[in-house]
Amino acid sequence: MTPILEIRRLAASYGKINAISDIDITVADGGIVTVVGPNGAGKTTLLNAVSGLFPSRGEVFLNGEPISHLSTEQRLARGLCLVSERRELFSTMTVEDNLLLGAYSQYRKRLPYKDTFSTIYDMFPRLHERRRQQAGTLSGGERQMLAIGRALMAKPKMLLLDEPSLGLSPKVTKDMLAAVAHLRTTGVSILLVEQNVRSALRISDHAYVIETGAITMSGPAQQVAADSRVIDSYLGVASAPN
Q1: Residue 204 in contact with residue 192, Cβ under 8 Å?
Q2: Of 39, 167, 178, 188, which is most buried by a Cβ count within 10 Å?
Q3: Concatenated DSSP letters for 32-92?
Q4: Domains of the chain
C-alpha cells in the first residue's frame, strides 16, 4: 500500500543555520505518527516545510504524487492541511464563519461542504453551542477545537497538527487527544507534534524523535515509548513500563 505521506531528505535553513536536515518520515494511510523532541529541535519548522509555508529542500509526496513544487494553497487543495500551534483564528468572526473559511478550497472546487458542519459539531458539541459567538470569546480548549474543525472543513486526507494541547488543562488535553485519535476513524491521517509525549505516543502507530534538526530515533510508538533514552528525556523515570 502506498503511504499517504512520504518525506524524503527534507531540509530547511534559517540563513546559514540548518533548522532540519535529511528528514525521512512516512505516514501510512489512516495512521497517526508523532514527532517528539526538545524545544528548538525543528518540529514546527518540519511541519511548516511539509505544508509549504517554509522554503525547503528535499521531496514530499502525498498519495505517491510529488507536491514539493506546489504552493501551500495547492497542497491544501490536494488534501494536506496544517493546524498551527498559533491556531490563527479570526477573533472578531463567529465560530461558524471561521468554519466556513475552512471550506474555501471545497467552495472553489464547487464540491459540497455544508454536510461537514454536522460532522464537526458531532465531534465538538461545544462548537455547536458557541456557533454564534465570536471566536475571540472562546476558551483555549474551544479555540483549539475550532482550529481543528476549520481544518476539517477542507476535508483533508492528511492533517498536520502542531501542539494541539498547548496551553490546555490536563483534562482538556486528554479530551483533545482523544478527539485526535478519533479522527483516524473518519479517514484522516495525522502527523502530530505534541508536548504531551506520553499521551501522544499512546494514540500513535509510529514515532520519530528529532534532536537538533535530525531524526535520532524512530519505530513503532510503543517501542519508542519504552526506550530508556525517551523515558529519561521526555517521559520521566516514573513512566518506565512495568
Answers
A1: yes
A2: 188
A3: EEEEE--TTSSHHHHHHHHHTSS--EEEEEETTEE-TTS-HHHHHHHTEEEE-TT----TT
A4: 1-79+157-242 (3.40.50.300), 84-155 (no CATH)
Q: Which amino acid is at 35?
A: V
Cα–Cα dist 74/81, whole Å:
10
Integer Cα distance of 68 and 205 in angstroms: 25
Cα 65-44-131 angle, rounded to 5 deg: 90
**Helix (H) or strand (E) segment spanning residue 163:** none
pLDDT in tens, 199-238: 999 999 999 999 999 999 999 999 999 999 999 988 864 4
Angstrom distance (rounded) from CA 230 to CA 211: 12
CA dihedral defined by 93, 142, 47, 31, rounded to 10 degrees?
Answer: -130
β-bridge mates for residue 159, sequence order: 81, 190
Compute φ and ψ for 55, nearest 5 degrees: -60, 140
Q: What is the pTM of this model?
A: 0.91
